[in-house]
Design a protein that fits this description.
Number of strands: 10
Structural class: mainly beta
Number of helices: 1
Strand content: 35-45%
Helix content: 10-25%
Order of helices and strands: HEEEEEEEEEE
Length: 121
């Protein structure tokens, strides 16, 4: 049985993907999809394009716009996580991810259902 947060995440991802444009590549992969577009990197010494934390029951900032190749650090508090397609940060953990393709990448706090996004241009 799917949880409400899983359904909301799926709807958010579907809505965001529907707004994406054609990358002109002619391939089957959408420009804002997939783990291949995101790689986990070490936070130590990384030049960050954005940092996403949590404040109450929301991501702060809720949306960040970065350039292709930019690195985002996710640093949620102990009661929140980050669950995205191709990137995850456990409850209270932290992680840095490099976004290597243009598109909109949605993420969700699994326990609470609030969402955020990284817009890569």
């Amino acid at each position: 049985m799917k949880t409400l947060s899983t359904i909301l995440f799926a709807l958010t991802c579907t809505a965001l993907a529907a707004c994406g444009g054609d990358d002109g590549g002619g391939g089957d992969e959408a420009p804002d999809a997939g783990p291949a577009s995101i790689s986990s990197v070490s936070c130590a010494g990384a030049t960050l394009a954005a940092t996403v934390t949590t404040s109450g029951f929301a991501y702060s900032p809720q949306s960040s716009t970065i350039s292709v190749g930019g690195i985002v650090r996710f640093d949620p508090t102990a009661t929140h996580d980050v669950n995205g397609e191709g990137f995850d940060v456990p409850l209270g953990g932290d992680g840095c991810f490099q976004f290597n393709a243009a598109g909109t990448f949605a993420f969700l706090c699994t326990p609470h259902g609030f969402t955020g996004s990284i817009i890569v241009q």
